[in-house]
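Quick entry between incubations.
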Amino acid sequence: MSGLSAPIETPDGVFLATFSEHGLRSLRFPDGSSSGPTPAEVSPWLEVTAGAVRAILAGKRPGAFPPIDLEGESEFRRLVWAELQKIPLGATVTYAELAERLGRKNGARAVGGACGANPIPVLIPCHRVLAQGPRGQRLGGFSGGLDWKIRLLQREGVLL
DNA sequence: CCACACTATTTAA
DNA sequence: TTAAATAGTGTGG
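Done. Structure below.
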């Protein structure tokens, strides 16, 4: 399997998307490098993916999503990510809430692990998951850097 | 076996 | 009252 990679240019930098023949496999935050060489072969889902990414970055609801390829991932993680995609724009949940929805009442930590392993940030909105503090919610962590988590939440109109 | 993007609970100060 | 230890969870190193 070769896997097609392609840059996605946005006002926030150049994201890098990787596709398999089944769908979007991964999405990486801008690493500072420029847009790079245009691949000879382009995935048919590139435009849809780019559109969705730009929409979310702008705090708008994406019109359409590309198919997503989660092959090779554990059951639990797929459940978590599926649940994440149900969270509407601008809404947030806590790790504990998510765990409970999956029937893992005490699995908040495991949920955190799944979020950290999320190969497709932004589209699978791991940034909308916050930690439960003694009083209200805390930010928690983010694999792409907390800056991104904050920026994404602010674009969606979420206050802390 | 240990370490985590967690948290409710318990035990000490 | 507030702070620190602990237990419970799924995965990966």
